Amino acid sequence: MAKKKIGIYTTLESTANNKVEDLYLIVDKESIVFSVKHKQKNEFVAFEHFVNNAENTGWHQLVAYLQNNSKLIQSVYGNIFFIWNSTRFVLTKKQIKEDSLLYQQELNLVHGVLNDEELYTTPYDDNFVLVYSVPDALSTILSRSFPTGVWHHYTEYVLATSADNAALVYLFENYFCIRLLKDGRTQLINYFPIAGNDQNSYTILNACAQVKLDMNETSLQLWGYNSTQHDFVNTLSNYFKSLEIIEGPHKQPIYSTYFIF
């Protein structure tokens, strides 16, 4: 059975005539997170984290569970953003003549062919575009509860962070997303599974070596850090110029990956 890991609440102010809060619904293969942001105050005001039972596959049971256990699902929102947190994406050169078929072929080449998914593209800058796909089953089930929801990919927000020479690491339960910047330009963005301490450190350091980052000039920035789960950070940080652990609201770094919007 699905379960609710945590809920953080304040009194929401939105009404039908004055929608001052937005909902960010962050979804991966195992969880759904509600992150509510007050637009005028520019601060997050509510949060819920639901996870699927390891024996469950798909999202139907998880969504059915939160229908009865979420205090936020029936609230009024201005904008609703579906944030798909999936490894199935590519950051690629923008086509001179936009052609979704070419983008689909490149996505399939990198990640394999999947049927029953809808392709999405988001411009990154003048030269690159983010390409990803969302399962039709997930889109259908969320749209029933949130008809006005609009899809985005988590890496859109990772790519919005500015830095010069940095390794940006976003930690989740079973995986992490890393973005490497050199002289302010993205050199790599990708997902990797959480493994043992040595393997996690090797994965990050190897990625830095592949793009030839000067570690003496590179800062390590972490979102979602949990001192009891991420022991590898203590060793890893010794290889970087500096370490910064990003805190979310209420100074909880463990959930800061869900407050980057």
Provide keyphrases for this structure:
single chain; 261 residues; alpha/beta; Nucleotidyltransferase, domain 5; 3 domains; six-stranded mixed sheet; five-stranded mixed sheet; 14 strands; 21% helix; 35% strand; globular
Can you walk me through this structure?
The chain has 6 helices and 14 strands. It is an alpha/beta fold. It has 3 domains: 3-78, no CATH class; 89-156, no CATH class; 163-258, Nucleotidyltransferase, domain 5 (2-Layer Sandwich), CATH 3.30.420. The strands form 3 sheets. Strands 1-4-3-2-5-9 form a 6-stranded mixed β-sheet. A 5-stranded mixed β-sheet has the order 12-11-10-13-14, covered by helices on one side. β13 (219-223), α6 (232-236) and β14 form a beta-alpha-beta unit.
Total number of helices: 6
Overall number of strands: 14
Task: Estimate the global geometry from the Cα principal axes.
Answer: globular
Based on CA atoms alone, the radius of gyration comes out at 19 Å
CATH domain topology of the largest domain = Nucleotidyltransferase, domain 5
Order of helices and strands: EEEEHEEHEEHEHEEEHEHE
Tell me the span between the first and last alpha carbons.
30 Å
CATH superfamily of the largest domain: Protein of unknown function DUF3822, C-terminal domain
What is the number of domains?
Answer: 3
Helix content: 10-25%
The CATH C-level class name of the largest domain: Alpha Beta
What does the average pLDDT come to? 95
Strand order of the largest sheet: 1-4-3-2-5-9
Question: What is the architecture of the largest domain at the second tier of CATH?
Answer: 2-Layer Sandwich
Given as residue ranges, the uncertain stretches (5+ residues, pLDDT < 50) are none
In percent terms, what proportion of residues is strand? 25-35%
Strand count, sense and barrel status of the largest sheet are: 6 strands, mixed
Structural class: alpha/beta
